[in-house]
Amino acid sequence: MGICDMHSHLLPEIDDGYLSREQFIRMLNLYQLSGVTAIAFTPHIFNPYVTTNISELRETYQWARGEAESLGLQTYLGSELFVGDQETLKTIPINGRFALVEFGLSLPPPKVLERLQQLVQMHYRPLIAHVERYLWLSPKSTMLQRLRSLGCLLQTNVEAVENNLSLPYLELGLIDVIATDNHGDETLPARLMDALEKWPSVGRSMQNLW
């Protein structure tokens, strides 16, 4: 397939994205014009700082999928799972395969490796969201090596590519996915394609995932 934006918060009135339905349709057109061929909608779940309207999620996604299909865009419903201190990890996997996960910024969650193993045992591939943000995780750390050995993929945000925050990861070939983490910024679809043009190896990695 082409390029999928695997991390976004664009579904109207679901989490902390800030699009109306009219703005959402405009955003879809911008994605299509930029050359992105698929979008994964990944609302927050279990995030202690974000309220997510779970009761409306499926219905809103069905509407969004119909609007996207009319433009020739493939869509997936997923989630961005906050791994805190919950005993059992539950997620909505992207295309039934990828479990997008996020963590607290300062410290790793308890027994993070053992708990991510739960997702692996469910035949999901953990995808660590915006890896550049975590103060306890660095490109050459033992923890990162263990996460990679577990099969975790690493995602960085477009903004981090632009401001070089993710450069240490990119230079070591550690980034598997560049995504927008889009909460309503209409410039991000084109900027995603610009970032992938700068780092074509990541673009190839993203296409090979599917």
UniProtKB/TrEMBL annotation:
Domain of life: Bacteria
Pfam family name, one: CpsB_CapC
Entries under InterPro entries matching the protein: Caps_polysacc_synth_CpsB/CapC, Pol/histidinol_Pase-like
EC number: 3.1.3.48
Catalytic reactions on record: O-phospho-L-tyrosyl-[protein] + H2O = L-tyrosyl-[protein] + phosphate
A GO molecular function held by the record: protein tyrosine phosphatase activity
Protein name according to UniProt: protein-tyrosine-phosphatase
Species this chain originates from: Sphaerochaeta halotolerans
